[in-house]
Amino acid sequence: MTSRVSCNDCSLSPICLPLAVRADELEQLDSIIRRGRAMKRGEHLYRAADPFDSVYAVRSGALKTYSVSEDGEEQVTGFYLPGEIVGMDGISTAHHVSSAKALETATVCEIPFDRLEFLSTRIPSLQHHFFSLMSREIQADRELHLLVSKKSADDRIAALLLSISARHKLRGLSASTFRLPMSRYDIANYLGLAVETVSRTFTRFQQQHILRVEGREVEILNRGALCGAAPQEILDQPC
Amino acid sequence: MTSRVSCNDCSLSPICLPLAVRADELEQLDSIIRRGRAMKRGEHLYRAADPFDSVYAVRSGALKTYSVSEDGEEQVTGFYLPGEIVGMDGISTAHHVSSAKALETATVCEIPFDRLEFLSTRIPSLQHHFFSLMSREIQADRELHLLVSKKSADDRIAALLLSISARHKLRGLSASTFRLPMSRYDIANYLGLAVETVSRTFTRFQQQHILRVEGREVEILNRGALCGAAPQEILDQPC
DNA sequence: CGGCTGATTGATTGTGCTCAATCAGTGTGG
DNA sequence: CCACACTGATTGAGCACAATCAATCAGCCG
C-alpha cells in the first residue's frame, strides 16, 4: 500500500518540505514518513479526542478540518490541499481537538510526531521549518479572523477563491480555472455565512462576468474585480 | 534596568515555562532571557514589518496585538496577560506581520528566538514546550473563529469575559472581580462588533444582574448566565 | 420510481451597524 | 482658574445586510 518513493521524487516537496538538508539527513527524514495512505471521500484521517500521534502531508485530493460544539453545530476550521500539512493542533493536549475528513479521494503521508521531534533536535533546519509552518498557520488564522469579523459576504467569498487560486498556482496548475473540492455548505460554514448567501453571491458574480461557475467548477474571468472585492492582505501573491 | 532574578523566582513561571528540566539546563535558558523591560501605556513592543528577533513573555500589565490592512482599518488579533507569550507570528517571514502595543504599564521578558531555537535542539522538553505553545495558539484562534463566525454579540462578549476571568484565576487572582485592560473599542474590534453593541450589551447584562460594570472594572454576578450565553468550548475551565 | 442530498431562488425578518447626540473624564493653553 | 478640545463611553433612531423560512430543482442512488 505505502510506496517506497522518496520525498526527493515527490513533485510536492518544494511546497511540503522546502529544506536544505544533507543527503543523509534527508534519508533519515524519509525513513520516518509513512507514505501514500489512501482515503475515500468522507473518510476521517482523525477525529476530535483521538490521541495525537502524527501530522500529515496531503499528497493528493483535499481535506477539511472541523470541530463540533456540544450543541452539535459544526465549525469548519480549514481546507488542506496537496503539499499542505494538517494536524498540528493537538500537540499541546496530546489529543486532537478537531477532526479531519477527506473532501474527495485523497492520499496523505503520515509523519509520526515524536520521531519528528527527535529528528528536529538533530536537524536544526527541520525544527525551524516546523516552527515556521506553525507560525504561518497562526498568520493564516489571523487573516481569516479579519475576514470573518470585518468583511462583507462578497469579500469573504472573493478572498477564498483567490486563496485557492493562489495555492493552485503554487503547484504549477491554472490560477484561473479549478475545481472547488468542498461543498457550498462547507464554504458557508468556514466563512461564517449562510449557504444561501454563498449561492446568491456566486450567481451575482456570474452575472457581473467576474466568474463562470458550474457546480464546483470555477473560472475566474475578472481577477481585478475579485481583488477589488477582496482585501489584498489575505493573499500570498499580488493581484 | 533588567533584573538579575531567575525564572525560578518568578511567580509566573508555572504558566510561562512549565518545564521539567535539569538545573544546568534551566540556567542556560535563564541566561538567554533579557528580563524586566519596562513599557509605558501605548508603547510598541514591535511593529509590523520589524525584523523578527525575539518572542516575549508578559511579566506584568497587558498587551494587544493588531494588524492594519492597507485601507487603514485596524484588526485586533489578541490580548496578552502576565505569563503569556507574545510574538510568535513572524517566524516564517523573519519579520513581524502584526504589531504589539502595551495597553497599560507593562514589563516583558525578551527571549531571542535564534538562541531559543539553538537551545531547543539541546533541550527536547523546551522544543516540545514551544511546539505546544504554538499549537495552543492555533487552537485559541480556531475557537475565536467559531465565536466570531457563528455566535451572537452576547455570546462573544460573555466568552471574552469568561476567558479573562479564567486567565486571572490561573494566576491565583479573583475569577469574579477584575479590571479589563482594554478599551471598549479594542473589545469591539477583536470580537468583530461595533463599539455601540459592546456598550449596549454591557448595560443589558448589568440590568439582568449578570454583571456589575463600572468603566473597566467588572464583577461577574451570575456566572451561570454568562456560561449559558457563551459556548462552553471556548473556556479552559468548567463553568 | 421515490427518497435523498446539494444547490438555487424568492420573500420576510431581525440582529447588529451606521449616523447622531450627549456626557464624563482628562489634559491643554490662554 | 476656567474654557476648550479631545477621547472614550453611553444611548437613541433608522436602516441594511445577511439570516431564516420556504419552495423548487437537479443529480444520484437504493
Task: Report on this structure.
The structure is a homodimer of 239-residue chains. With 239 residues, chain A is α+β, with helices and mostly antiparallel strands. Chain A has two domains: 7-146, Jelly Rolls, CATH 2.60.120.10; 151-234, Winged helix-like DNA-binding domain superfamily/Winged helix DNA-binding domain (Arc Repressor Mutant, subunit A), CATH 1.10.10.10. The first copy, chain A, is 41% helix and 22% strand. Chain A contains eight helices and eleven strands. Chain A has helices spanning 13-16, 23-32, 113-122, 124-150, 153-170, 184-191, 195-207, 223-229; strands at residues 34-39, 44-46, 54-60, 63-68, 74-80, 85-86, 99-102, 106-112, 177-179, 211-214, 217-220. A four-stranded antiparallel β-sheet of chain A has the order 1-8-3-6. In chain A, strand 4 (63-68) and strand 5 form a beta hairpin. The longest helix of chain A is centred in the middle third of the chain and has 27 residues, at 124-150. Chain A is globular and about 55 Å long. The first copy, chain A, starts with 12 loop residues before the first helix and ends in a 10-residue tail after the last helix. At the A-B interface, helix 3 and helix 4 of A face helix 3 and helix 4 of B. Chain A binds a DNA duplex (30 and 30 nucleotides) through residues 152-153, 183-185, 193-200, 202-203, 215.
